[in-house]
Amino acid sequence: MPVIESLIQTENDGTISFGNYKLAAKTKLQDFEYAGDLYKIKTYYEITKLERNGSLVYESVPGTAVGHFTVNHDGVSFMVEGEKDAQITIQLEDDAEYEVFVDDIAVGGMKTNMSGKLAVSVELNQGVASCVRVVKR
Question: What CATH number labels 8-136?
Answer without folding.
Answer: 2.60.40
